[in-house]
Amino acid sequence: MESVYDRIVSKKDTLAVIGLGYVGLPIALEFAKKVKVIGFDINAERVEMMRNKIDPSKELESSAFDNCDIEFTNDLEVLKKASFYIVAVPTPVDEHNMPDLVPVKKASETVGKVISKGDYVVFESTVYPGCTEEDCVPIIEKLSGLKTVDDYKIGYSPERINPGDKEHTITSIVKVVSGCCNDSLENIAKVYELVVKAGVHRASSIKVAEAAKIIENTQRDLNIALMNELSIIFNRMNINTFEVLEAAGTKWNFLKFQPGLVGGHCIGVDPYYLTYKSKELGYVSQVILAGRNINDGMAAYVAKHVLQHIIQNDGNVKEAKVLIMGATFKENVSDIRNSKVADVYKELKGFSLNVDIVDPHASSDELQHEYGFSLSEKIDENYDAVIITVPHDSYKNLDDAYFSSITKPYALVADLKGTYKNRIKSRPYWSL
User: Fold this and answer.
1) Active site residue 266
2) Catalytic residue among 131, 136, 180, 266
3) Predicted pLDDT of residue 165
4) Domain 221-430, CATH among 3.40.50.720, 3.40.50.620, 3.40.50.1460, 3.80.10.10
5) Do strands 15-18 and 37-40 pair parallel, antiparallel, or not at all (unpaired)?
């Protein structure tokens, strides 16, 4: 009897990816170079864009769609033709930092409506340990009438996509895979080995794979939180944090993290999934939540520092103007999800300051829809402060003369990531 892997390789069976965002689309296109793929997304407008070789997330060039055996659809009847389903929908948190499982549960409902006996389902969405088996499986079983392991196989393989990173792509990052039994683990591993040149790591269980993913970003979050706290301390000592890190980094085992705003859909979100599940099991996290509190408070810290500078230099707060350069969650991407720059903007507006914001990558319409403000049409003059929040490549060659030309003599250049360290001479300079 042929395995699901054999049928997919021979193109007798089709692989489907559900959710074609930053994670799903690159996976779908990579597989489509080797096997038959159905790319499913509930958003008809996005589906039409992808049919025309346009990545709605602006991460991939149109050439990425070339030589791909893929059918884009939002039709469940088309989706039913697949036998190996990869679910790659987002898992955000709500306004109370509680896990929002609506997308992954809706995707589970979709799977339950289309799968048949013998099919495979692999989740890639970041969740807390136990979510796949405790929250998703019951939905699939109820709607499909099929029993996990006996009738269909379930697995988990955490996504490791890094938006804007052209070096660490799906093919070059080791893929963690897991399955509900030994047979499913082997088939899932072999399917991913078709596209992941770096190889796969077979986790001992679905829960282990889920936990591995969630601590990757929790570890980064905590290390950045430490840097942010050190930055607050060093600022009071009139020490430049980046100079301290440069000196400390000469030791071979020093971890080279930097302070900054922590947003995005991974580092600023994933730890809350772990602490949520931990609390549900009777343990209230101390270290993880402490790190989260520091990182979530950095936007207010930056805004307060800028306000204090304006007040101390006789600036009229209600007439003062501040320019924010960068609105996305990280450099050189268009992704604005969970961007902490939005928090900086709102904090400054809360102080009655006039705020302009520019970004060469962000969509003004998306910012208006998500956060209630738009990009400024042009950069003005006579700013009381400029905050470089996101060090896009297009900003890196700006010099002292440029910042002098758009600011008042006492204006603060707040360079959060230290891009212009030792380069700003004619204006007060500050970095985290």
Assistant:
1) yes
2) 266
3) 66
4) 3.40.50.720
5) parallel
